[in-house]
Write a structure and sequence with these properties.
By secondary structure, this protein is mostly helical. It has helices at 15-21, 24-27, 31-47, 53-72, 84-96, 109-144, 165-190, 209-215, 225-230, 233-260, 287-311, 324-348, 353-361, 367-376, 381-398, 407-413, 420-424, 427-432, 442-457; strands at residues 150-155, 158-164, 192-193, 220-221, 267-268, 350-351. Strands 1-2 form a two-stranded antiparallel sheet. Strands 3-4 form a two-stranded parallel ribbon. Helix 8 links the parallel strand 3 and strand 4. Helix 6 (109-144) packs antiparallel against helix 7. The longest helix is centred in the first third of the chain and has 36 residues, at 109-144. It starts with 14 loop residues before the first helix and ends with a helix. Bound molecules: arginine.
Length: 458
């Protein structure tokens, strides 16, 4: 297919140049956005009297036909075209002759591509947000079933204090709510129409930028034509938001992998969402979680690629910027793919409550509560801390727990202890008493669940 810019050239383009230069292999996915953008542009050209109204109508009608034909499979995108913009315009001209050639009035591929990516990513942001909302809903359900499931909370991967599995899951919900917020924020800044920036210097035609922006659902128009065609901040912002999502999914995956191990055995993944080994018959592997953890590296790579492509190019458009699409599309596709597998994996996993409870019973995770018990009896916290430290050392020596240590031993270390200590260090009680907002008590977690459900509904 012929290039759009042939006039000045005397020789045919070398095949090597065409192969290297072409972007249709990865920008053809924007065909719908390209056509939608062109329809809005053609309408505006007609309304503003820049082309005949009748021609504008012919162009928009035929663009709609082209869109339908691509969707139905009647028209195949020619991968020999330089890019999707060239293909669509070429097809239009093939169908309409002279009239088709009027579409590109007052427009450049530079503002056209800046528009298309925005339209495309805007849609992708909505898709990713919806998937994250689905994950949040699943997590709220799983949390709702586990508000009384005691498990050890960890710091330094050492058992620290008692929490519930619900509370732990809701920590991920907090992260995912921030992710949705970040996507919405990126979308807001992205939703500005660059069309009318032309190649870089705007245009002498009396275009109506507000009209095209309105037709395409933008919140406004870009303020500077040089920036309009050379800005890819919105790709970088989105890649950054997607990278943070992957950090969250990767941390979650790491925990899933640990929880599945015989060392923890806190959960079991459904057979449909785990894999086996070709040699070890006993194996059941958390491959989905491992792949999600691994794919986070890809998305960070995409962000790094975008930052690096953009950091050294003089204003305005440079061909380097064609590299934006593969990176940002890969980041979007990877996140979507990860969520597609991750959500049902979480939905179907079995929670081994007893094992969590047994792990919570070992590791002295009620030691802080034991110290707090002495504080309630009037001892300064530092002295209480020291007394309980001695008790823990004694338990380790004797192979006991704070629950099984005799009251006489308690009294030897501090005379303030009485039988009431056993109630104070009961794990269920320790959790139930943590009533402050944001804490692990069932009431508090129910409130967290309610707030999260409300957040995803709006
Ligand atoms: N395929 C190009 C891209 O993705 C479209 C813009 C071409 N503009 C140009 N001046 N060569 O960036």
């Amino acid at each position: 297919m012929a290039q759009l810019w042939k006039g000045r050239f005397k020789k045919e383009l070398a095949k090597e140049t065409n192969d290297f230069n072409s972007s249709i292999g990865f920008d053809s996915r924007m065909y719908e956005e390209d056509i939608t953008g062109s329809i809005a542009h053609a309408r505006m050209l007609g309304d503003a009297g820049i082309i005949e109204k009748s021609e504008s109508e012919k162009i928009t009608a035929e663009l709609k036909n082209i869109l339908e034909d691509i969707k139905s499979g009647a028209l195949e995108i020619d991968l020999n075209a330089e890019d999707i913009h060239t293909f669509v315009e070429g097809e239009l001209t093939a169908r309409l002759g002279q009239t088709g050639k009027r579409l590109h009035t007052a427009r450049s591929r530079n503002d056209q591509v800046a528009l298309d990516i925005r339209l495309c990513l805007r849609k992708e942001i909505d898709a990713v947000s919806d998937m994250i909302k689905e994950l949040i809903a699943v997590l709220c359900d799983r949390a709702g079933e586990n508000t009384l499931t005691i498990m050890p909370g960890y710091t330094h991967l050492q058992r620290a204090q008692p929490i519930t599995f619900a509370h732990h899951l809701m920590a991920y919900v907090s992260m995912l709510c921030r992710d949705i917020d970040r996507l919405a924020d990126a979308r807001r800044r992205m939703n500005i129409c660059p069309l009318g920036s032309g190649a870089l210097a705007g245009t002498t035609y009396p275009i109506d930028r507000e009209e095209t922006a309105r037709l395409l659902g933008f919140d406004g128009i870009s303020q500077n034509s040089v920036d309009g065609v050379s800005d890819r901040d919105f790709c970088i912002e989105l890649a950054s938001a997607l990278s943070i999502i992957m950090v969250h999914l990767s941390r979650f995956s790491e925990e899933i992998i640990m929880w599945c191990s015989w060392e923890f055995k806190f959960i079991e993944l459904d057979d449909a969402f785990s894999t086996g080994s070709s040699i070890m018959p006993q194996k059941k592997n958390p491959d989905i979680a491992e792949l999600v953890r691994g794919k986070s590296g890809r998305v960070f790579g995409d962000l790094t690629a975008l930052l690096t492509v953009m950091k050294g190019i003089a204003l305005a458009y440079n061909k380097d910027m064609q590299e934006d699409k593969e990176a940002i599309f890969d980041a979007v596709d990877t996140v979507k793919m990860c969520l597609t597998a991750f959500i049902p994996m979480i939905k179907t996993m079995t929670v081994l409550k007893e094992n969590m409870r047994n792990a919570a019973a070992r590791g002295f995770i009620n030691a802080t509560d034991c110290a707090d018990y002495l504080v309630a009896k009037g001892l300064p916290f530092r002295d209480a801390y020291k007394a309980v430290g001695e008790l823990v050392a004694l338990c380790i020596d004797k192979g006991l727990t704070l629950e099984t240590l005799a009251i006489d031993e308690y009294k030897k270390v501090c005379s303030l202890f009485d039988e009431g200590v056993y109630d104070a260090i009961n794990l269920e009680k320790c959790v139930l008493c943590r009533l402050a907002p944001g804490g692990p008590s069932p009431q508090s977690v129910e409130a967290q669940i309610k707030a999260a459900r409300k957040f995803i509904e709006k």
